[in-house]
Amino acid sequence: MGDNLRGKSAIVGVGHAGFGEAHGQTAYEIMAQSSLTALADAGLKLSDVDGLFCTMMEDSMPVVMAAEYLGITPRYIDGTMSGGSSFVNYLTSATMALEMGLCDVALICYGSNQRSASGKLVTASKLPPYEGLYSPRYPISGYALAAARHMHEYGTTRENLADVAVAARAWASHNPEAFMRDPLTREDVLASRMVSDPLTKLDCCLVTDGGGAIVLVRADRAKDFPNAPVYVLGSAAESSHRQISQMKDYTTTAARESGKRAFEIAGVTPKDIDVVELYDAFTINTVLFLEDLGFCQKGEGGAFVSDGNIAPGGGLAVNTNGGGLSCVHPGMYGIFTVIEAARQIRGDAPGIQLDGVELAVAHGNGGVLSSQVTAILGGASTV
Amino acid sequence: MGNPLGPDATFRDGLSKGQINLQQCGNCDQFIFFPRINCPHCGGTSLTWHPASGKGEVHTATTVRRRAEKGGDYNVSMIELAEGVRMMSRVDGIAPLDVKIGLAITAFAGEIDGIPAVLCKPAEG
Ligand SMILES: [Zn+2]
């Protein structure tokens, strides 16, 4: 069940561009700059790319637009749009395409000018047909409904959620690439403007510009590049609903299934993991995903994230770049979970570099807890 | 005779006439929402329409904060009807922050900005 893909591909280049505010730049410019940076990191050039994996917040055919922009004619493309999880999902399709010889150099890329284009941005996303009339604030109200239920069933508190934001900021404060680096306290989060109960403005991810890119090749040639390869040990997806009203259990996400399968394919368990990079669109995400991926029991996520346990020096290193809450969140954050995980394994993380990272989780989320994709990445000792 | 209405139009047509109708699967007997041509539980395609009881409770809820001059705060709830289906709705006739999980509600066919919609009020008694 996918385990014959274990370790078959490796990340040999990562790049990003336009973090924070990229005034005067288009989304495709930011995507392209990210791609050029990642290719330079890998010692490759645009003409080497024959597999392209991309989606954007605009256009109906973003992967085709991206190929045109980059001036390449890829022989394999994937533009599957599952929201922010798309870019973790592309690790699976890129690995398959590489392994089957459908391409030799896979480029996963993304860019957005969501912050500086604010007000002009037209998203492809329509309001769901059986929800739009009630004017939920999209997407925060969907996450608020899940958070309220988690609090009801398990006694999770606003203080617990606030501590997720505080931990993210603590990591970000050491990361020169992070957009928000000022000190943040639990009290700051609790006193922040309520947006959709129980979530405040500071329970929400940032709105920034930015882009990212990843270059993958088959594992058998991964050692021929300048950087230490980061192997894709396992990746798996599960899609459970699109509209929040169709979510069966508001306290359990499809990450339980995607995580279980990704760990099985990789042949490791949560206990083996050195660092966890999660899509933290809202503070409740971190709680839900740590539970569903098996880092703590269901219902215990609130206590697990509290009192510095996922902050620098805590029991588990989570979102070491500062995450979507404090580092960068240009419309979709998923690709940055992979980039930060890869850099931690390579040993060149921009903020706090942990010692001896060999195994990392990158977890993407799309929609309103709708699409979950988990990837396990590993260093040289894991293959 | 034209083509019969699809499930979506049938539901909205009922709502515009003051009725909340739900589909029930002839294969697994479960009620479903939103309206479909296939049962999402078992894949069955023999779905029949029945008037909803209107009885239910709030499964989870949020208060969307909005400036007073734009109309003030409002409730968005996920309601679970006695038939076992959940849908998004709004509970009226009670302050948004008082809409708690477990609150017993009565669902009714109302409208929002002139468009037929399932709305709720706290159950009496
Ligand atoms: Zn059925």
Structure description:
In chain A, strand 10 (359-366) and strand 11 (371-378) form a beta hairpin. Chain A has a nine-stranded mixed β-sheet, sandwiched between helices. Chain A has a two-stranded antiparallel ribbon with strand order 5-6. Chain A has helices at 27-42, 62-70, 86-99, 140-154, 158-172, 186-191, 255-266, 283-292, 301-304, 323-326, 334-346; strands spanning 9-20, 51-54, 76-78, 106-112, 194-196, 199-200, 209-218, 230-239, 275-278, 359-366, 371-378. Chain A contains eleven helices and eleven strands. By secondary structure, chain A is of the alpha/beta class. In chain A, helix 5 crosses helix 8 (283-292). Chain A has two domains: 3-119 and 209-232, Thiolase/Chalcone synthase (Peroxisomal Thiolase, Chain A, domain 1), CATH 3.40.47; 139-194 and 234-378, Peroxisomal Thiolase, Chain A, domain 1. Chain A is globular and about 50 Å long. Chain B has 125 residues and is mainly beta. Chain B folds into two domains: 7-51, no CATH class; 55-122. Chain B has one helix at 7-16; strands at residues 21-25, 31-32, 47-51, 55-64, 74-81, 86-89, 104-112, 115-122. In chain B, strands 6-5-4-7-8 form a five-stranded antiparallel β-sheet. A three-stranded antiparallel β-sheet of chain B has the order 2-1-3. The radius of gyration of chain B is 16 Å and the shape is globular. Chains A and B meet through helix 4 and strand 5 of A and strand 4, strand 5 and strand 6 of B. The site of zinc ion (ZN) has 8 residues of chain B, from loops.
List the helices and strands and how they pair.
The complex is a heterodimer of chains A (383) and B (125).
Chain A: E1 9-20, H1 27-42, E2 51-54, H2 62-70, E3 76-78, H3 86-99, E4 106-112, H4 140-154, H5 158-172, H6 186-191, E5 194-196, E6 199-200, E7 209-218, E8 230-239, H7 255-266, E9 275-278, H8 283-292, H9 301-304, H10 323-326, H11 334-346, E10 359-366, E11 371-378
Parallel strand pairs in A: 2-3, 2-4, 9-10
Antiparallel strand pairs in A: 1-7, 1-8, 4-7, 5-6, 8-11, 10-11
Helix pairs in contact in A: 5-8
Chain B: H1 7-16, E1 21-25, E2 31-32, E3 47-51, E4 55-64, E5 74-81, E6 86-89, E7 104-112, E8 115-122
Antiparallel strand pairs in B: 1-2, 1-3, 4-5, 4-7, 5-6, 7-8
Residues 25, 27-28, 30, 39, 41-42, 44 of chain B line the site of zinc ion.
